[in-house]
């Protein structure tokens, strides 16, 4: 589960990780009040307005129809007011959102971290994630902060450092020091960085993060180390033990159809193709999508109905797939092991009758327990449903259906 | 010879008296698996499915001499169940549970380093040696005895592959469902190695998914050590990058873990790579004739 920047920063503060201070608001009046507060706290007229959406590239992204970036600095109340008006309710398009963009419902009014002081400011990069091959968490960091880290890794791989954390000892003191030294820090900033990294790792473990990225990790002119931006992704499997975090889920950031599918315990991902599919098992679902492509179509979705394919789940699956007007055919591929194919077939027939006339071809491939009985049921139902037992037959039926629809 | 489990395996079920445990234990017994008992903390001393129930895995091992455990414990307690089994000296631990938090598995993987136990899974269909023992949730009737070994990250896709191999007249020796999570006990390469050294296995079907580098690692091992034909399929050629496709591990992170990259590496290593899942069985049959 992804969190907004403002949510992630609040969670980090609970672990004593210093962050760029800010107040999240959803209307212009509240933005003005937040600005007054931030100004009072920091004794600085400058403040930053940051659009809160689940996508990166906000600073370079623009609000549709307006000359407005997703992150902007204001130097007085009027500025803040204008920026807030532009961003709130607008649609932010960034490299990560695609051309459709995302609606902005919240903005973060944040302190200006470039305030003057005795020393120059510096930006770094730091993230914590799982190294699957080693089975360990790894802290990845770089002196090149505030930039696209994939670009840095590509152009100057020697500027990316990695520190693996042994599961039995956790992050050790020497490792935190090594990170601070490699970032070229000394004095107060060094000490602050060691504390920052130690507490950040505790947050990563304590919150069951799947990924935690601080970019930029920032050294202020008075030697503080703070998180200016934060991307936090929580392991979905661990949400059961973090109720307070689970409640931060923002459904507005998710595809409404995917949210609806979740309610029926269906695992659905919307894609751009023309053949819908409904499958039991994630691997077989992906394989079915691949087969659709090889048959001349493009998969319109990923849909795993899980271990229990019955009339209710099949009906919900049908409804969800048919919401997409681009769908020209639907392929149901169920390998019945524990679930009996004849039951699934009865479910398909029941759902079909309930939904009335479906005017796109439906191909049902049922294999496994009672596959023959299932095929008979479908064939004798009188419905415009084509049945198959072998996967290759199903692929052929998809090919024919697509050829006809053109 | 067979791999991991056979008719002599003494199997206990952790989470024996729960709904899942009860259902699948019955199916395993029906298949002929030697299920010697089960574990449900607090229910020790009772009997379930005509077999003794124990409070701890250690008690179960002491009383029955069990050497294999299959786990149906809910995700919040599954990591603990795996480590309990290892501590009790179980040689093969098969964890079916889906949805175990990743950091729990980081702990488990590290814990297991001090033990000789082998873990299969989690989030997997289990292991079956056709005609001898089923330690898993797969539909047993599909797996007719024969000469093909299967290694797979995915459940129903394993059944699909087994069905095709059986219909091609080849049959199955042992099928190993290794699971689709980011951290699993037995890797693709380790499972392939077991089958490569198994006398009953004449060909290997290796089914992977997008995400991670396990298939590439296995392919490179096969290039150096392979002595039997291997047919490979990677699910997720059409999966968009950055989206998690069902399995926690099935997400394209970098350029190296896409289906295309994996298929290319596998081909370079001499594996018979199929683009369509419908071609697995016939490609295996053809490869064996060569």
Automatic annotation (TrEMBL), chain A:
<dbReference type="GO" id="GO:0004775">
    <property type="term" value="F:succinate-CoA ligase (ADP-forming) activity"/>
</dbReference>
<dbReference type="Pfam" id="PF00549">
    <property type="entry name" value="Ligase_CoA"/>
</dbReference>
<protein>
    <recommendedName>
        <fullName>Succinate--CoA ligase [ADP-forming] subunit beta</fullName>
        <ecNumber>6.2.1.5</ecNumber>
    </recommendedName>
</protein>
<comment type="pathway">
    <text>Carbohydrate metabolism; tricarboxylic acid cycle; succinate from succinyl-CoA (ligase route): step 1/1.</text>
</comment>
<feature type="binding site">
    <location>
        <position position="215"/>
    </location>
    <ligand>
        <name>Mg(2+)</name>
    </ligand>
</feature>
<feature type="binding site">
    <location>
        <position position="123"/>
    </location>
    <ligand>
        <name>ATP</name>
    </ligand>
</feature>
<feature type="binding site">
    <location>
        <position position="280"/>
    </location>
    <ligand>
        <name>substrate</name>
    </ligand>
</feature>
<dbReference type="InterPro" id="IPR016102">
    <property type="entry name" value="Succinyl-CoA_synth-like"/>
</dbReference>
<feature type="domain" description="ATP-citrate synthase/succinyl-CoA ligase C-terminal">
    <location>
        <begin position="278"/>
        <end position="396"/>
    </location>
</feature>
<feature type="binding site">
    <location>
        <begin position="337"/>
        <end position="339"/>
    </location>
    <ligand>
        <name>substrate</name>
    </ligand>
</feature>
<dbReference type="InterPro" id="IPR013650">
    <property type="entry name" value="ATP-grasp_succ-CoA_synth-type"/>
</dbReference>
<keyword id="KW-0547">Nucleotide-binding</keyword>
<comment type="function">
    <text>Succinyl-CoA synthetase functions in the citric acid cycle (TCA), coupling the hydrolysis of succinyl-CoA to the synthesis of either ATP or GTP and thus represents the only step of substrate-level phosphorylation in the TCA. The beta subunit provides nucleotide specificity of the enzyme and binds the substrate succinate, while the binding sites for coenzyme A and phosphate are found in the alpha subunit.</text>
</comment>
<feature type="binding site">
    <location>
        <position position="113"/>
    </location>
    <ligand>
        <name>ATP</name>
    </ligand>
</feature>
<feature type="domain" description="ATP-grasp fold succinyl-CoA synthetase-type">
    <location>
        <begin position="2"/>
        <end position="218"/>
    </location>
</feature>
<dbReference type="InterPro" id="IPR005811">
    <property type="entry name" value="SUCC_ACL_C"/>
</dbReference>
<dbReference type="GO" id="GO:0006099">
    <property type="term" value="P:tricarboxylic acid cycle"/>
</dbReference>
<dbReference type="GO" id="GO:0004776">
    <property type="term" value="F:succinate-CoA ligase (GDP-forming) activity"/>
</dbReference>
<comment type="subunit">
    <text>Heterotetramer of two alpha and two beta subunits.</text>
</comment>
<comment type="similarity">
    <text>Belongs to the succinate/malate CoA ligase beta subunit family.</text>
</comment>
<dbReference type="GO" id="GO:0000287">
    <property type="term" value="F:magnesium ion binding"/>
</dbReference>
<dbReference type="GO" id="GO:0005524">
    <property type="term" value="F:ATP binding"/>
</dbReference>
UniProtKB/TrEMBL annotation, chain B:
<keyword id="KW-0436">Ligase</keyword>
<dbReference type="InterPro" id="IPR005810">
    <property type="entry name" value="CoA_lig_alpha"/>
</dbReference>
<dbReference type="InterPro" id="IPR005811">
    <property type="entry name" value="SUCC_ACL_C"/>
</dbReference>
<keyword id="KW-0547">Nucleotide-binding</keyword>
<dbReference type="InterPro" id="IPR036291">
    <property type="entry name" value="NAD(P)-bd_dom_sf"/>
</dbReference>
<feature type="active site" description="Tele-phosphohistidine intermediate">
    <location>
        <position position="247"/>
    </location>
</feature>
<keyword id="KW-0816">Tricarboxylic acid cycle</keyword>
<dbReference type="Pfam" id="PF02629">
    <property type="entry name" value="CoA_binding"/>
</dbReference>
<protein>
    <recommendedName>
        <fullName>Succinate--CoA ligase [ADP-forming] subunit alpha</fullName>
        <ecNumber>6.2.1.5</ecNumber>
    </recommendedName>
</protein>
<feature type="binding site">
    <location>
        <begin position="96"/>
        <end position="98"/>
    </location>
    <ligand>
        <name>CoA</name>
    </ligand>
</feature>
<feature type="binding site">
    <location>
        <position position="43"/>
    </location>
    <ligand>
        <name>CoA</name>
    </ligand>
</feature>
<comment type="similarity">
    <text>Belongs to the succinate/malate CoA ligase alpha subunit family.</text>
</comment>
<dbReference type="GO" id="GO:0000166">
    <property type="term" value="F:nucleotide binding"/>
</dbReference>
<comment type="subunit">
    <text>Heterotetramer of two alpha and two beta subunits.</text>
</comment>
<dbReference type="InterPro" id="IPR033847">
    <property type="entry name" value="Citrt_syn/SCS-alpha_CS"/>
</dbReference>
<dbReference type="InterPro" id="IPR003781">
    <property type="entry name" value="CoA-bd"/>
</dbReference>
<dbReference type="Pfam" id="PF00549">
    <property type="entry name" value="Ligase_CoA"/>
</dbReference>
<comment type="pathway">
    <text>Carbohydrate metabolism; tricarboxylic acid cycle; succinate from succinyl-CoA (ligase route): step 1/1.</text>
</comment>
<feature type="binding site">
    <location>
        <begin position="17"/>
        <end position="20"/>
    </location>
    <ligand>
        <name>CoA</name>
    </ligand>
</feature>
<dbReference type="GO" id="GO:0009361">
    <property type="term" value="C:succinate-CoA ligase complex (ADP-forming)"/>
</dbReference>
<dbReference type="GO" id="GO:0006099">
    <property type="term" value="P:tricarboxylic acid cycle"/>
</dbReference>
<dbReference type="GO" id="GO:0004776">
    <property type="term" value="F:succinate-CoA ligase (GDP-forming) activity"/>
</dbReference>
């Amino acid at each position: 589960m992804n969190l907004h920047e403002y949510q992630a920063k609040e969670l980090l503060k609970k672990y004593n990780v210093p962050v760029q201070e800010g107040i999240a608001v959803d209307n212009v009046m509240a933005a003005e009040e937040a600005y007054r507060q931030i100004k009072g706290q920091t004794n600085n007229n400058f403040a930053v307005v940051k659009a809160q959406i689940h996508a990166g590239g906000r600073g370079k992204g623009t609000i549709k129809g307006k000359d407005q970036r997703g992150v902007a600095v204001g130097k007085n109340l009027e500025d803040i007011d204008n920026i807030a008006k532009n961003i709130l309710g607008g649609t932010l398009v960034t490299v990560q959102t695609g051309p459709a963009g995302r609606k902005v419902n919240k903005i973060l009014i944040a302190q200006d971290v470039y305030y003057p002081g005795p020393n120059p400011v510096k930006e770094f990069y730091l993230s914590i994630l799982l190294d699957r091959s080693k089975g360990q968490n790894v802290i990845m960091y770089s002196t090149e902060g505030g930039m696209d880290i994939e670009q840095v890794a590509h152009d100057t791989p020697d500027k990316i450092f990695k520190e693996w954390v042994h599961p039995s000892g956790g992050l050790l003191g020497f490792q935190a020091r090594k990170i601070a030294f490699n970032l070229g820090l000394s004095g107060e900033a060094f000490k602050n960085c060691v504390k920052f990294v130690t507490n950040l790792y505790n947050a990563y473990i304590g919150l069951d993060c799947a990924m935690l990225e601080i970019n930029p990790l920032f050294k202020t002119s008075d030697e503080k180390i703070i998180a200016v931006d934060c991307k936090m992704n929580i392991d979905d499997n661990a949400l059961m033990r973090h109720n307070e975090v689970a409640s931060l889920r923002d459904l507005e950031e998710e595809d409404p159809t995917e949210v609806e599918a979740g309610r029926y315990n269906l695992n659905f991902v919307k894609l751009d193709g023309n053949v819908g599919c409904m499958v039991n098992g994630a691997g077989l679902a992906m394989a079915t999508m691949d087969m659709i492509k090889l048959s001349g179509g493009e998969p319109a979705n990923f849909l795993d109905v899980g271990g229990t394919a019955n009339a209710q789940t099949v009906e919900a699956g049908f409804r969800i797939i048919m919401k997409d007007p681009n769908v020209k055919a639907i392929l149901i591929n169920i390998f019945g092991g524990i679930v009996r194919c004849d039951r699934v077939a009865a479910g398909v027939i029941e759902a079909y009758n309930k939904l009335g006339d479906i005017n796109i071809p439906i191909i049902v491939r049922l294999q496994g327990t009672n596959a023959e009985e299932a095929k008979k049921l479908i064939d004798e139902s009188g419905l415009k449903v084509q049945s198959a037992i072998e996967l290759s037959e199903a692929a052929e039926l998809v090919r024919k259906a697509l050829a006809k629809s053109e | 010879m067979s791999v991991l489990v056979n008719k002599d395996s003494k199997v206990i079920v952790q989470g024996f008296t729960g709904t899942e445990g009860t259902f699948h234990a019955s199916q395993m017994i029906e298949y002929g698996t030697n299920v010697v008992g089960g574990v449900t903390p607090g229910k020790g001393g009772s009997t379930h499915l005509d077999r003794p129930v124990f409070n701890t895995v250690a008690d179960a091992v002491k009383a029955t001499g069990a050497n294999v455990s299959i786990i149906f414990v809910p995700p919040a307690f599954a990591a603990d169940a795996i480590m309990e089994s290892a501590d009790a000296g179980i040689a093969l631990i098969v964890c079916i549970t889906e949805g175990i938090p990743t950091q729990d598995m980081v702990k488990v993987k590290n814990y297991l380093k001090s033990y000789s136990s082998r873990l299969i899974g989690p989030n997997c269909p289990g292991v079956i040696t056709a005609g001898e023992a089923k330690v898993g949730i797969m539909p047993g009737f599909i797996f007719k005895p024969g000469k093909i070994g299967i290694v797979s990250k995915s459940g129903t896709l394993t059944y699909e592959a087994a069905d095709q191999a059986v219909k091609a007249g080849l049959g199955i020796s042992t099928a190993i469902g290794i699971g689709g999570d980011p951290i699993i006990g037995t890797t693709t390469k380790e499972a392939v190695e077991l089958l490569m050294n198994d006398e009953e296995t004449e060909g290997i079907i290796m089914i992977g998914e997008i995400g991670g580098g396990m298939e590439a690692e296995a392919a490179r091992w096969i290039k150096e050590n392979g002595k039997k034909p291997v047919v490979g399929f990677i699910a997720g050629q059409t999966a968009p990058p950055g989206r998690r496709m069902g399995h926690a591990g099935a997400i394209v992170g970098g350029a190296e873990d896409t289906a295309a990259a994996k298929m290319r590496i596998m081909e370079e290593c001499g594996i018979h790579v199929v683009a369509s899942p419908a071609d697995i069985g016939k490609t295996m049959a053809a490869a064996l004739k060569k």
